[in-house]
Amino acid sequence: MVEQFVGTWTLVNSDKFDDYMKAVGVNFATRQMGILAKPNVVINVGDDGFITLKSVTTFKTTEFKFKLNEECDEDTPDGRATKTTMTIEDGKLVQKQAWDGKTTRIEREIQDGKLIAKCYMDDVVAVRTYEKAA
């Protein structure tokens, strides 16, 4: 089920991402970089069963390795240290992050050949749309 997400994806549209970062608690300077960054997201599945989700921007590259349904430590691009669990729910790759008594959820799904990432924090929903790189 994860195979449909494998590949390199380029950000083409971002809606309410600054609001989402604010809700998560990201500081102003980091949010400005986050708004300017047009990340490529690279998703791979290794022979060891680990899935790698890499975010590549001109500012920094972050890499997160995980196994489905197993809680693990994640250092987010904005500097949070979270306990993260990745699952597949209704065909979506769902990322739940918990830190400092807060939780956020990112749902990624494929729609019309695009990768749609919906980021939920409290009542804020940001939508980021990626197209598959050639």
Sum this structure up briefly.
The protein has helices at 17-24, 28-36; strands at residues 7-15, 40-45, 51-56, 61-66, 72-75, 81-89, 92-99, 102-111, 114-121, 124-132.
Strand and helix map with partners:
Blueprint: E1 7-15, H1 17-24, H2 28-36, E2 40-45, E3 51-56, E4 61-66, E5 72-75, E6 81-89, E7 92-99, E8 102-111, E9 114-121, E10 124-132
Antiparallel strand pairs: 1-2, 1-10, 2-3, 3-4, 5-6, 6-7, 7-8, 8-9, 9-10
Protein name: Cellular retinoic acid-binding protein 1
Function: Cytosolic CRABPs may regulate the access of retinoic acid to the nuclear retinoic acid receptors.
Domain Lipocalin/cytosolic fatty-acid binding: 6-132
Kindly describe this structure:
Cytosolic CRABPs may regulate the access of retinoic acid to the nuclear retinoic acid receptors. Residues 6-132 form the Lipocalin/cytosolic fatty-acid binding domain. This is Cellular retinoic acid-binding protein 1. The structure is a single chain. The protein is mostly beta strands and 134 residues long. It has a single domain, classed as Beta Barrel (Lipocalin). The chain is built from 2 helices and 10 strands. It has helices at 17-24, 28-36; strands at 7-15, 40-45, 51-56, 61-66, 72-75, 81-89, 92-99, 102-111, 114-121, 124-132. A 10-stranded antiparallel β-sheet has the order 4-3-2-1-10-9-8-7-6-5. A hairpin with a 5-residue loop joins strand 2 and strand 3 (51-56). Helix 1 runs antiparallel to helix 2. The longest helix has 9 residues, at 28-36. 20% of the residues are buried.
